[in-house]
Amino acid sequence: MARTSPRLIDVVFKPHIVRGAIQVSLVVGTALNLLNQGANWYRGEGISVFQLLVNYAVPYLVASYSAARNDILRSRADDG
User: Fold this and answer.
1) Residues ≥6 apart with Cβ < 8 Å to 68
2) Least C-beta-crowded within 10 Å: which of 11, 45, 55, 72?
3) Residue 5: its pLDDT value, please?
4) In sequence order, what are the residues at sequence separation of 6 or more whose Cβ sits closer than 8 angstroms to the Cβ of residue 18?
5) Is residue 6 assigned to a domain?
6) Number of folded domains in the chain?
7) What are the Cα distances from residue 78, in Å, to 29, 38, 55, 66?
8) pLDDT value, residue 1
9) Would 56 be classed as within a structural domain?
């Protein structure tokens, strides 16, 4: 009998996926913040904390979803 595929929510929190998503988020989020708010920071003006957080959260969510989906598809192919 074939195994049941893991749920996405279970796979997203695997340590290797969290680690990889954090690394992607740090690189991409920093680049996005520099692009979106760099001029304000350079001029000594305030930056939007909300935008700062979103610029890190979105790459984290995309990277973790992609990695988890890839793990699930790979496990299905191995079961096949």
Assistant:
1) 8, 11, 12, 14, 17
2) 45
3) 66
4) 12, 64
5) no
6) 1
7) 34, 46, 35, 18
8) 43
9) yes
Residue 45 is given by DSSP the state: -
- Residue 11 near residue 17, CB atoms below 8 Å: yes
Q: Which residue has the tokens 């959260």?
A: 57
> How far is Cα 47 from Cα 62, in angstroms, rounded to an integer?
24
Q: Which domain holds residue 51?
A: 16-75
Residues in the chain: 80
Mean pLDDT by 10-residue block, N- to C-terminus, for the chain (80 residues)? 72 96 98 93 91 97 96 82
54 within some domain: yes
Count of CA atoms in the C-beta half-sphere (13 A) of 55: 19
One-letter amino acid for residue 73 of the chain:
L
pTM: 0.84
Q: Is residue 46 part of a domain?
A: yes
C-alpha distances (whole Å) from 1 to each of 4, 76, 79 are 9, 13, 10
